[in-house]
Amino acid sequence: xxxxxxxxxxxxxxxxxxxxxxxxxxxxxxxxxxxxxxxxxxxxxxxxxxxxxxxxxxxxxxxxxxxxxxxxxxxxxxxxxxxxxxxxxxxxxxxxxxxxxxxxxxxxxxxxxxxxxxxxxxxxxxxxxxxxxxxxxxxxxxxxxxxxxxxxxxxxxxxxxxxxxxxxxxxxxxxxxxxxxxxxxxxxxxxxxxxxxxxxxxxxxxxxxxxxxxxxxxxxxxxxxxxxxxxxxxxxxxxxxxxxxxxxxxxxxxxxxxxxxxxxxxxxxxxxxxxxxxxxxxxxxx
Length: 286
Prior knowledge:
Helix content: 25-40%
Number of helices: 8
Number of domains: 2
Largest sheet: 7 strands, mixed
Strand order of the largest sheet: 3-2-1-4-5-7-6
Distance between the termini: 6 Å
Number of strands: 9
Strand content: 5-15%
CATH topology of the largest domain: Rossmann fold
CATH class of the largest domain: Alpha Beta
Shape: globular
């Protein structure tokens, strides 16, 4: 089985395939962030790195069975300027479309953020499938609402019951989080956190008066000794747990670099569940 991963990041796709029990013979990764590539090389040294997606040609690759990727979302995200396809990063979606046509894989998966319907319809038209909406809260301790365009059959699942109090490592915050009651309208989780991969909103554990976890600008600290509701930057290990990435996966790097890479990555258990459809159809191989 040959996999082509575009915008590979820290290779969450490889973790998900492994977790789903899918045997991969060759994994080709297109990624230009040198720190993300370092993380991938450390964890998956057999990865075949092929660089800039705009320079990748389907004719240079062997037969690709599975094409995956989460094209840059800054143009679509509500956290950005709403430039949609006019954002040069979000334009890279069309590189995914190009390689989908050039490689003609049996299966494909594209992930992206919630966006305006008209933008979503453009993606659906090019991929000829409608997206599946999945909130990472069904698989982890964070709220992370994403769309997945794929031709892989997705099995039904029962939402998990993991709370933020299950993954935080600070005893003071851990005990405080346990006391928080569910917010009105939240029928399963009281505490959720969106992992942000943008410089102005890094991950914080923030238990506020509304019983929600919310991000604050990176570097803004609040004296927890003067506040009954603690605030602090999340540790790298905690962010890995939120994304269901193995603890220690990103290695010894700065919190800021880890937040960006993990925030740009996938919630592994969500994608692993999707990949189980490959196993059910092909018994672990294509």
